[in-house]
Specification:
The protein is built from 12 helices and 5 strands. The protein is 51% helix and 10% strand. The protein has helices at 3-17, 27-33, 68-83, 100-112, 115-120, 124-129, 134-144, 148-157, 163-170, 174-180, 200-209, 215-227, and strands at residues 36-41, 49-54, 57-63, 91-93, 196-197. The chain has 239 residues and is of the alpha+beta class.
């Protein structure tokens, strides 16, 4: 999949999801919109997330040990496998960057950082000089809820900056620069552990009422949801 193809597929997904062509993506709303059961749990270092599609149901497991920005990218990456794989199979996102995984990364980048939206925040002077101010970089990564490197690679794909600029900015402390400009640091930290988005509780209750699980098992499942982090006020992709 070329970058152009990824752009078109991301635009199609936005249309199907009822999103504008430049607004930030709300991943929790996407889970609800498409009835995807999403659970955030600590996973191993090499597993960013897992997606499964079977019998019309979709499930996603996201590594809560990842930073929130990385979690958002993982969700967008897994959407390709859930919606566009010809023969969807259980998939583990492990950070590979070739073949279908590269294609999924390109889609995720285009979906989370839409061309129209990103370019609207970059001045003519920045475009001409292929040099984006740190203030602009911070504004974009906070707005679209993505990691510093994800944004820089997207800007490179859009022809705004080159590799040398990426290497220069990569030397700067991400959290240090965010603090210096007065931004909250939650985007750059792990989070959402035990958060469940979807009808997990409803399905557990149905199984109990159908005598498919015991009362004790039902209580255990219910406590799993109740003990998890509830959705806080930051219900936006940067939460």
């Amino acid at each position: 999949m070329s970058i152009g193809d990824a752009e078109l597929l991301a635009q199609k997904f936005r249309i199907d999801a009822g999103l504008g062509m430049s607004e930030p993506v709300n991943v929790k709303s996407l889970f609800r919109r498409f009835n995807i059961l999403a659970i955030y749990r600590p996973l191993s270092q090499n597993s960013y997330g897992i997606s499964i599609k079977a019998d019309g149901s979709m499930f996603m497991l996201i590594n809560s040990n990842s930073t929130r920005g990385r979690q958002h990218f993982t969700v967008a990456h897994e959407l390709v496998h859930l919606f566009y794989d010809e023969n969807p199979e259980p998939h583990v996102c492990n950070g590979k960057v070739f073949g279908v995984e590269r294609d999924a990364n390109r889609f995720a980048s285009a979906l989370l950082m839409p061309r129209e939206g990103v370019l609207s925040y970059i001045s003519e002077n920045e475009m001409t000089n292929h040099c984006v101010d740190l203030a602009t970089i911070l504004r974009l990564e906070q707005l679209y809820g993505v990691s510093r490197m994800s944004l820089l690679l997207r800007l490179k794909d859009l022809g705004v900056i080159g590799e040398s600029f990426i290497q220069e900015v990569a030397k700067k402390s991400v959290k240090g620069s965010a603090l210096a400009y007065g931004y909250d640091l939650s985007l750059y930290e792990r989070g959402n552990e035990n958060l469940v988005v979807g009808d997990f509780g409803v399905k557990a209750r149905l199984l109990f009422e159908q005598d498919k699980i015991s009362e004790g098992h039902y209580v255990e499942l219910s406590n799993m949801v109740c003990d998890g982090k509830r959705e806080d006020g930051e219900d936006h992709i940067g939460c």
